Each structure stands twice: as C-alpha cells, then as structure tokens.
Amino acid sequence: MAKGDSAVATASENPDRERVITRVFDVPRDLVWKAFSESERLLHWWGPKGFTMRVGTFDFRPGGVFHYRQQSPEGVEMWGRFVYREIVAPERIVFITSFSDAEGNLVRAPFSPTWPLEILNTLTLSEHEGKTTLTLRGRPLNATEAERTTFDDARDSVRQGLTGTLDQLADYLARA
C-alpha cells in the first residue's frame, strides 16, 4: 500500500452492468479534487504505469473536454478524451470517456473492436476525518449488446488497470 493511501481499491459489479471501484486516500478531499480538476496534476498520475502523458485540451467545465495522449515506453501512442457532463466541486464529476484520434474524434479501442465507444463515469469524493473516499462508477453508454458483453467480460483487466492508475494517484498524493 502506498504512503498516503489507507485502503486498497475494491471493485464490484452489479446487475445493470455498472462497475464500482472505491478507494480511500489518507489526504483531504480538496487535494484529491485538485488531482482530477487541474491538468498539470493529471499529467503526474493518469493512465497506465510507465506511460507518459500529454494534454491536448483541458476544459474543465460541463460540456468541456479533456483530450490527451498517452505514450507507452515502446513509443506506442493512444489518444483519449473525457467529455464533462456535470461538475459539483469538490464532490462529484460526471464524464464520458472514450478513445479518440489526435483530433479528438471517437475511435475504437486499440485492443478490441467491440469495446464500447463511450463509458459514462461518475466520480464522487467524500471526506471523513481528513481521509477521502473516492468512488468511481462506470457503464457503457449507447452500447450494443456485443459492446456491453465485452465490457462485462473485461472486468478483471479493467479492475487491474484502474487499480494501477489509482495506485499512481496515491503515490502522487503522498508527494503533493
């Protein structure tokens, strides 16, 4: 467990195909909020371990877009984007994630032709005694049955990926 992180991420799936991941950080909510709401902070922890990030666009407001590039240690590039739907500082962010091209257009995931084009995410942050509980809920949006099945079948790899990303967030928060 990383310093500044008081609990291991837990994940669950429920009947409406929503993924729920919860993590407790040993820092105030305001600091976790800034890690999500400021592009220069996101650069330090968002994405797979070992990847480098570049922000193309960061417009943190409802209707705004976070468009970014991730590059693997081998030089493979992937682009992604968030489209923010709702922001209630410092407790809630609703956003749609997707893979994109360099111009920000939706594209299929490089690892699966049936990965959902869009995932609706709801991030909530609550604070108790100086610790922050992060809950991330996600589900396919406007998905076909094949896309929903792919999302469901990827539960373990998604859990591993998000846990790794949250580990990086814990490490970043411990240094912030």
Distance between the termini: 17 Å
Strand order of the largest sheet: 1-2-8-7-6-5-4-3
Q: Secondary-structure element order, as H and E?
A: EEHHEEEEEEHH
**Oligomeric state, counting identical vs distinct chains:** single chain
Helix content: 10-25%
The number of distinct helices, counting runs of at least 4 residues, comes to 4
Enumerate the spans where pLDDT stays under 50 for 5 or more consecutive residues. Answer: 1-15
Protein structure class? alpha+beta
Overall average pLDDT: 91
% residues in beta strands: 35-45%
How many individual β-strands?
Answer: 8
Apparent shape = globular
Largest sheet: 8 strands, antiparallel
Work out the radius of gyration: 15 Å
Word description of this protein:
The two termini are 17 Å apart. A hairpin with a 5-residue loop joins β4 (65-71) and β5 (77-88). The chain has four helices and eight strands; from the N terminus they run ββααββββββαα. Mean pLDDT is 91; it is low at 1-15. The chain has helices at 29-37, 39-42, 145-153, 155-175; strands at 10-13, 19-25, 52-58, 65-71, 77-88, 92-100, 119-128, 131-140. It has an eight-stranded antiparallel β-sheet with strand order 1-2-8-7-6-5-4-3. By secondary structure, it is of the alpha+beta class. The protein is 24% helix and 38% strand.
